[in-house]
């Protein structure tokens, strides 16, 4: 059963990696220009235009292949920042359990009460859209990561391998980095996946509201906003970017769930 589960995780990891690579490097696969007008507005599928055209007559397939790079890069940066801060804070909070650690945990709980989209909208007034996504993901995701890692670290402090390391005279930072953190690898990986999904959702929300890359740059979220009114003429112009976002988020979420189940069972 363990071998089957491990094989399933590896398959999901490979599939998710392929999806991320396609989102990041899809522009290299397209033979068309994603910003050039190729035909009439919302023309249907035709030779050379397998998904038809958008409202400005541009190749939908070329724009879909090129429209995931910036969104994915921003989401990865935001998720990585939130996970890094949350893991560092969670290790310290779960290990020390002193007055300062309790204050940090209480602050994390207060941050969780803030409406995430409202925070991001306030941030986007002061900083560019990508920075606002990072701010929103950090404020919304770091507290969750901190709580999860802190609870796991507190439990690890009572395990035999940690007690053995301490009895050898190893200092707390070394124990946390060499013993505790590797034991949480699956948990941290699963949590990073959840932060990535959160960042993608936040990026999409801001881009749909018009805070994403300026036209005519291709972007999956902006394509949804731009092509809804032509849904009856060429449904693929709106369905294709929606499907791309669904596949990206779904692949990451499935891998995160698999890693979480594996971490919980270990």
Q: Would you mind describing this structure in some detail?
A:
The longest helix is centred in the last third of the chain and has 30 residues, at 236-265. The protein has 266 residues and is mainly α. It has helices at 2-25, 60-66, 69-96, 99-112, 116-126, 129-156, 160-167, 172-183, 185-208, 220-227, 236-265. The chain is 73% helix and 0% strand. The protein has eleven helices and no strands. It has two domains: 1-66 and 215-266, no CATH class; 73-213, no CATH class. Helix 5 (116-126) packs across helix 6.
Number of strands: 0
Please indicate the count of domains. Answer: 2
Mean pLDDT across all amino acids: 87
Distance between the termini: 13 Å
Helix share bin: over 70%
Please count the helical segments.
Answer: 11
What does the radius of gyration come to? Answer: 22 Å
Relative strand content:
under 5%
SSE arrangement, N to C = HHHHHHHHHHH
What is the 3D shape? elongated
Pfam families: BPD_transp_1 (PF00528)
Membrane topology: Multi-pass membrane protein
Protein name: ABC transporter permease subunit
Organism: Nonomuraea indica
């Amino acid at each position: 059963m363990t071998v089957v589960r491990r094989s399933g995780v590896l398959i999901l990891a490979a599939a998710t990696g392929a999806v991320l690579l396609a989102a990041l490097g899809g522009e290299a696969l397209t033979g068309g220009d994603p910003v050039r007008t190729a035909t009439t507005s919302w023309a249907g599928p035709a030779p050379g235009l397998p998904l038809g055209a958008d409202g400005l007559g541009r190749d939908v397939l070329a724009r879909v292949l090129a429209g995931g790079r910036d969104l994915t890069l921003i989401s990865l940066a935001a998720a990585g920042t939130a996970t890094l801060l949350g893991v560092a804070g969670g290790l310290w909070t779960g290990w020390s359990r002193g007055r300062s650690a309790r204050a940090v945990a209480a602050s994390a709980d207060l941050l969780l009460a803030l409406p995430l989209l409202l925070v991001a909208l306030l941030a986007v007034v002061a900083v560019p859209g990508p920075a606002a996504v990072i701010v929103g993901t950090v404020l919304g995701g770091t507290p969750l990561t901190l709580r999860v890692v802190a609870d796991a670290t507190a439990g690890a402090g009572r395990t035999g391998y940690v007690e053995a390391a301490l009895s050898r005279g190893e200092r707390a930072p070394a124990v946390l980095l060499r013993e505790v953190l590797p034991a949480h690898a699956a948990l941290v990986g699963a949590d990073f996946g959840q932060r990535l999904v959160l960042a993608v959702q936040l990026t999409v929300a801001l881009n749909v509201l018009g805070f994403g890359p300026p036209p005519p740059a291709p972007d999956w979220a902006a394509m949804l906003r731009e092509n809804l009114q032509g849904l009856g003429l060429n449904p693929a112009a709106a369905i294709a970017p929606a499907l791309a976002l669904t596949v990206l988020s779904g692949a990451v979420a499935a891998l995160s769930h698999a890693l979480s189940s594996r971490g919980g069972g270990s």
